[in-house]
Structures are given as structure tokens and as C-alpha cells.
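Deliverable D2.4 — example input (C-alpha cells):
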């Protein structure tokens, strides 16, 4: 697994969020530059669709609850304009890069985790999103603590 270079992570707190509030409804948009390898994390009440490019290789995440317990829901878009063979390759790439993405979210929002340490034990659910049922599923990826 590649390790996060914190000097290449740029965090943008958007309107409606502070470094520690709110939890539920807090949304993350993680994008990157193929040229510089910089990572860009927007944290807000809405996803930063202004940062999404035509390749749709961003990672979207948000805090949700189930029966009163928080969990981190992460969404990656694996098809759309792509054929099934490309969707399978995109899943492979996302699975390789997701640990780095989760580490970037955990580090980039570290003050939230410091203020709410129970979040480090919340489950992470990854939704590999596809219109093709063969490529549309959920996986449990541990907890934020696993990506410190």
C-alpha cells in the first residue's frame, strides 16, 4: 500500500462545517492530479462536484447512521460511459488506491476524529457503484482507525 505524503494533501473546509462539526451529513470529495500526485480533499455539507472530472475517479464519502450508530459510507463510480471490461479494471484500480484515499480522509479530518474518538471505531462501507449488477456491490473496509 502506498503511504500518504501529507505534504501532497490539500484540505478545503467548505461552508457549513468546522474542523469538528457536524458529523452526520459531513461529506468528503477526494480528487487527485495524475501529473503532480497531489490529493485534494473537500469537506462540506455537499459533495464538491465542481472538483469532479470526466474520468469520474473521485472518492465520495459521508457520515451516515444506522440505528443511531455512525458509519462512513464511501462511493466510487465504476462504470457509466465505460464498457464492462473497463468497469472491472476501474474496480481493480479503486481497490488498489482506496487505502490511500481512506488514509487521506482520516488524516485530512484528523481534528474531527480527535474531538470524536468513537468515529475511529465506526465501520467503513464501500459502495462500488454500477448500473451493471455484476459490478454493483458493497464491501466492509474496516474502520478509520485502520487507516491512521
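Example output (designed residues):
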Amino acid at each position: 500500500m502506498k503511504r500518504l505524503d501529507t505534504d501532497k494533501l490539500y484540505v478545503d473546509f467548505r461552508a457549513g462545517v468546522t474542523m469538528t462539526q457536524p458529523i452526520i451529513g459531513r461529506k468528503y470529495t477526494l480528487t487527485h492530479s495524475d501529473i503532480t500526485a497531489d490529493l485534494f480533499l473537500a469537506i462540506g455539507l455537499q459533495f464538491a462536484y465542481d472538483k469532479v472530472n470526466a474520468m469520474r475517479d473521485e472518492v465520495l464519502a459521508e457520515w451516515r447512521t444506522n440505528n443511531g450508530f455512525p458509519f462512513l459510507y464511501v462511493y466510487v463510480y465504476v462504470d457509466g460511459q465505460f464498457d464492462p471490461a473497463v468497469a472491472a479494471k476501474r474496480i481493480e484500480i479503486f481497490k488498489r488506491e482506496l487505502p490511500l484515499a481512506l488514509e487521506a480522509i482520516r488524516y485530512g479530518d484528523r481534528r474531527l476524529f480527535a474531538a470524536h474518538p468513537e468515529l475511529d471505531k465506526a465501520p467503513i462501507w464501500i459502495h462500488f457503484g454500477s448500473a451493471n449488477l455484476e459490478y454493483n456491490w458493497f464491501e466492509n473496509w474496516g474502520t478509520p482507525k485502520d487507516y491512521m
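Helices lie at 84-108, 110-115.
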